């Protein structure tokens, strides 16, 4: 993917600067540390800007990233199509943008 996003056609907010938890233009940007091959999936908030996500998938062929998107989708109650890995697609430390629906 030329633009570095986990989903084709993804267009994140374009925010530049520190990666901290924030809501800008309907987008939440968080840092995620992923733990692959976990027995049970879970999401744990470490601080304002960082989450640890345990995924029950191997880090091969994008399986762990796909499972990460599914887990975050359930956790934040948004569709999978609203979640984008914007940095660290091949790393355990990632930056993720989540499209937030307006109330």
SSE arrangement:
Elements: E1 23-24, E2 27-35, E3 42-45, E4 50-54, H1 63-76, E5 83-87, E6 93-99
Parallel strand pairs: 2-4
Antiparallel strand pairs: 1-2, 2-6, 3-4, 5-6
3D structure, described in words:
- By secondary structure, the chain is α+β, with helices and mostly antiparallel strands.
- The protein has a single domain (23-99), classed as Conserved Hypothetical Protein Mth637, Chain: A (2-Layer Sandwich), CATH 3.30.1200.10.
- Helix content is 14%, strand content 31%.
- It contains 1 helix and 6 strands; from the N terminus they run E-E-E-E-H-E-E.
- It has one helix spanning 63-76, and strands at residues 23-24, 27-35, 42-45, 50-54, 83-87, 93-99.
- Strands 1, 2, 3, 4, 5 and 6 form a 6-stranded mixed sheet that branches.
- A hairpin with a 4-residue loop joins strand 3 (42-45) and strand 4.
- The longest helix has 14 residues, at 63-76.
- The radius of gyration is 13 Å and the shape is globular.
């Amino acid at each position: 993917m030329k633009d570095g996003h986990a989903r084709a056609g993804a267009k994140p907010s374009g925010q530049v600067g520190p990666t901290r938890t924030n809501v800008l233009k309907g987008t939440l940007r968080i840092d995620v540390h992923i733990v692959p091959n976990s027995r049970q999936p879970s999401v744990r908030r470490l601080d304002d800007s960082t989450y640890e996500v345990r995924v029950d998938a191997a880090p091969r062929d994008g399986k762990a990233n796909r499972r990460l998107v599914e887990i975050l989708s359930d956790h934040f109650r948004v569709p999978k199509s609203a979640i984008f890995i914007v940095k660290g697609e091949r790393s355990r430390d990632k930056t993720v943008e989540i499209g937030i629906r307006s109330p």
